[in-house]
Design goal:
single chain; 129 residues; alpha+beta; four-stranded mixed sheet; 5 helices
C-alpha cells in the first residue's frame, strides 16, 4: 500500500519535476554520463556531472554535502508538489546562475550561496535525515 501511495504521489503531486528529472536521466543515461545509481529514502540518487533535484530524481556530484543538500531539495519537492518548480526551482536556478557569474567575475566561489532561500532550507532538510 505504501508503495502504491508513493507511485500515485509521484504521478500526480510531483509530476512536473518528475518529468523533467526523467528527461535529464534519460539524456545522461544515453550519453553514459551517469557514474552511479542508488535508491535511498524512496528517491533515486544519481551521481552525475550536475547537482539538481527533480522529484524522485536526485542528481549529485563530488561529495556527501552536495548529496545531502540535493536530498533536502527533494524533501521540498515532496512538501510543495506542483509549486516546487516555481517556489524553489526558479530561485535556486537564479542563485546558481549568479554563483557562476560570481566565479567568472571574481575567480572565487560566492560565499553566500547556501545562506539564502531556498538553499539554506534545503541544507537544513538534508541534514535532518
Amino acid at each position: 500500500m505504501y508503495l502504491f501511495i508513493l507511485v500515485l504521489r509521484a504521478i500526480t503531486w510531483e509530476l512536473p519535476q518528475n518529468l523533467l528529472g526523467f528527461i535529464i536521466f534519460a539524456i545522461f543515461f544515453a550519453t553514459k554520463r551517469i557514474k552511479n545509481i542508488s535508491i535511498e529514502y524512496c528517491r533515486c540518487f544519481i551521481m552525475s556531472p550536475i547537482a539538481i533535484s527533480l522529484g524522485w530524481f536526485v542528481f549529485w556530484h563530488s561529495n556527501i554535502t552536495i548529496k545531502r543538500h540535493e536530498y533536502g531539495h527533494s524533501v521540498q519537492s515532496r512538501m510543495l508538489g506542483p509549486l516546487y518548480l516555481i517556489l524553489v526551482g526558479i530561485p535556486s536556478l537564479l542563485r546558481a546562475l549568479y554563483a557562476n557569474y560570481y566565479v567568472k567575475t571574481y575567480q572565487k566561489n560566492w560565499p553566500n550561496y547556501f545562506n539564502g532561500y531556498p538553499e539554506n532550507w534545503a541544507d537544513r532538510l538534508g541534514k535532518e535525515n
